[in-house]
Amino acid sequence: MEDVESGDGTGNYGNEIADDSNNNNPRVLDRDDSELDKHDDPFAPREGKTLTWTNIHMTLAGKGEESERKLLDNVWGEVPEKQTTAVMGPSGAGKTSLLNILAGRASSHGRVKIESDVRLNNYSVDPTNIKVRKLIAFVAQDDSLQVTSTPREAIRFSAKLRLPRATTDHQLDKLTDRMITELGLTACADSIVGGELIKGISGGERKRTSVGVELVVKPALVFLDEPTSGLDSFSAVQLCQVLKKVANAGSSVFFTIHQPSSEIFNSFDHLILMNKGRVMYTGSVHGVPDFFASRGHPNPPNYNPADFIMNVAQSVPVKQLNEDGFFPTDERKMGEAFVPDDGKDALGITVTRRTARGVDVYDTKPPGLVTQVKLLFTREINNLRRDVTALGARFGLTIFLGVLVGIIFLDVGKTDPTVAVNLQSHFGALIMVLLMSMFGTAQPALLSFPEERPVFLREYSTNHYSVISYFLSRLTMEAVVTGLQVFVQAIITYFMIGFQLSFGLFWAVTYSLAMASTALAVLLGCSVEDPKLAQEMLPILFVPQMLFAGFFVVPDLIPVWLRWARYLCTLTYAIRILLVEEFYDCDPGNPEANNACNDLVSNIDADPDETWWNWLVLVALFGVARIFALYILRQKSTKFF
Ligand SMILES: Nc1ncnc2c1ncn2[C@@H]1O[C@H](COP(=O)(O)OP(=O)(O)OP(=O)(O)O)[C@@H](O)[C@H]1O
User: Fold this and answer.
1) Which residue in 109, 141, 285, 320 has its CB near the most CB atoms, within 10 A?
2) Is 91's C-beta closer than 6 angstroms to any atom of ligand 1?
3) What is the pTM of this model?
4) Can you tell me the distance from the alpha carbon of 51 to that of 80, in angstroms, rounded to the nearest whole number?
C-alpha cells in the first residue's frame, strides 16, 4: 500500500523520495554527502517552473455614459525558470495588475473583468486557487511583518514552518544566517521590525526582511512587487544580486521595478515593458538596444537604457509606437495545456511517492498542526512581552477600574439586605464587575484580528500555517491573558466589595463571561476588515446585552416579540448564575433578609434549579461564536480582493 502526496507546499516538490515498494525501504535518490548540505543553503539547486500566459485582458466597465476601459489588453509573456524577469513601464501601465493576476491576487469583481490563460509548466492553472497561490512566494509592496519580531525571527519562523519538517534546528539557523548576511541585515538582525506605533528597523531593512522571509524557503516561483523601492542604490544592487542567485539556483523570479540604475537593469535576464496596458517589449534585456534601434529609437551613448526606454514609452504617442513596430503579437505556439499524467498532478507538479512505512530518511512534509500552534503561540508570547505598553495599559486599566469600583462599592456585599438601598448597591456592584469583565477583555480581542489581518493573510497564502493553527494559538493566548486579567480584577473587587459566594466561583463566572464575550468580539473582528470599523461596531456587541439582561428593565417589561433576544446574550446567563450564588437563600435564619434576596433573584428570572443549564448555555454560546468565527476566517483567508 502506498500513499501519494502532491508535494510539501514549499515549492520543493518531488525528487527527494522514491517509492521502494519491493523491499519496503524508502531510499533517497541521487543523494550524497554534498547534497545533504543543500538543506542549509538557501541557494541550493531546486526544480524550476516556467510560468506562461497569454490573452490576459482586464477591463473596467464604464459607468453611465463612460465607455469601457481596457486596463490590460491581450497581454502575453513568460517567466522562464532560472531567470530574473523584470516588469517595467510608466505609472498606470498595468504592471501591478499583471503581477496580481499572475499571483492570484486579483480576479473579476465589481466593474473589473479579468480573463486569462495562465500555465505552469504548460499545465493550465487558476492562480486564484489557493493551492496554486501557495506555490508562489510573494513579496508585496507593503511589508506585512509581525511588528514585534526581529528579522532573524521572521526569517527563521518562515523557514521552520515552510521547509520540510526534517530540517534540523542547526540547518534552520544556517539558512537564516546566510539569508541575513546576503541581504545585508546583519546589523539589525536582532532589532524588532517595528511599525506605526513601535519604533523598529528602517523601511529598507523591513523590505529586505520581507524578501528574506520568502527566499529562505527556496521557492520555485518568486513574485516581488517593487522590491527595490525605498532602498538605497547599494542595497538595491545587493538585493538584485540575491535575486539573481535565487534564479541561478533554478527559481523563476518575477518582479516589477521603477527606475532601475543601468547596473541593475543590466543584471536582469528578461524584460517585459508595459505601456498603456499592452506589452511594448518582451524578451532578453540584452536584446533591448537592438530592438529599440531597429525601430528608430537608438539608445544614446552613456544613457541609462532603463531611463531611455521609459522615456520612449512615455514621450512617443502609442499610435507612433505601433507604427514603429513595438507591441509585438504573441507568435508562440502554446498549443493545448497538458493534462495531469502519472508522475504529475493537476498543477504540473512532480508527485512525491511515500511508502506505507513512511519516510524515515528525509520527510518532505512541512511541520504539522502541533508545531504550527507552538510556534505561533511562542510568537504571541514574544509579542506580548515586547509590546509592554499595550500589556501595561490593559492590566493598568483593569487594576485602576477594579480599585475604583472597589472603593465605590466598599463592603456593600456585607451590608444588611433588608435595607433596600443596600441590596440595590450590592446588586449594582455585581453587575458592574460583570460589565467590566465583558468590556475590558472583548475590546482587545475585537481589535486584534483586524490589526493582524495583513500578516495573517500573507502568511496563510504563502503556506506558513493553516487557519485552524492560527485560530487555536490565538484562542490559547486569549484564554491565558483573559484568565490573568479577570483574576486580577476578581482579586481586587471580590475582597473590597465583600461578595458572599466563594472566590473560585466568582472568578469562574467572570472568566466564563469574559471568554464568551471575547468569542463574540473575535467573531465580529473576523467579519470586519478595518480595525476602525471594528472599533465603531463594538456597541453592537454590548448595548443589546445590557438592554436584554434584565437589570435595566425587568424581562416582563420587554415587548414580548423581543424577549427571545435575551436568550442569545451571554450576560443574561452570567447574571443568573451569579445572582443565585450570591443572593439565593442569603440568610435562612432571617426570613425578612432571605425574602428580599430571593425576590431579587426571581425578578431577574434566575432560577436556582437552572444554574447548570445557564452554565451550559454560556459555554455553548462561546463554542458557537468560536466556530462561526473560524468559519468566517476560513472564508476570508482566501480573499485578497
Ligand atoms: N480595481 C481597479 N479598479 C479600477 N481601476 C483599476 C483597478 N486596478 C487597476 N486599475 C487601473 O489600471 C491601471 C493600471 O494600474 P496598475 O496599478 O496595474 O499600474 P502600475 O503600472 O502598477 O502603476 P504604478 O507604477 O503607478 O504602480 C491604472 O490606470 C489603474 O488606475
Assistant:
1) 285
2) yes
3) 0.82
4) 7
Q: Using CA atoms in the order 232, 237, 242, 245, what is the torsion angle rounded to 10 degrees? A: 170
Residue nearest to atom 18 of ligand 1 (CA): 94
Distance 95 CA to ligand 1 centre (A): 8
Provide ipTM, 2 decimals. 0.96
Look at domain 51-280 and name its CATH class.
alpha beta
Query: What residues does each domain of the chain span?
Result: 51-280, 369-636
Q: What pLDDT band is residue 364 in, cutting at 50, 70 and 90?
A: low
- Condensed to tens digits (0 to 9), the pLDDT of residues 171-207 reads 999 999 999 999 999 999 999 998 877 889 998 899 9
What is the pLDDT, as a whole number, of residue 339?
Answer: 62
CB of 96 closer than 6 A to ligand 1?
Answer: yes
Closest CA to 414 of 494, 497, 493, 489: 497
The pick from 59, 68, 70, 97 for probing ligand 1's pocket by mutation, whose C-beta has the most ligand atoms within 8 angstroms, reads 97
The reply to whether ligand 1 has any atom less than 6 angstroms from the CB of 619 is: no
Q: Are strands 352-355 and 252-256 parallel, antiparallel or unpaired?
A: unpaired
pLDDT at 362: 38
| Lookup: cell for 500 | 458572599
The amino acid that residue 545 corresponds to is Q
Residue 93 Cβ < 6 Å to ligand 1? yes
Asked whether residue 363 carries a pLDDT value surpassing 60, the answer given is no
Residue 75 near residue 278, CB atoms below 8 Å: yes
First CA to last CA across the chain, in angstroms?
43
Closest CA to 525 of 417, 594, 444, 579: 444
User: Which backbone phi and psi does 318 adopt, to 5 degrees?
Assistant: -55, -40
Give 241's contacts (C-beta < 8 A, 6+ positions apart). Answer: 267
Residue 25 has a pLDDT of: 39
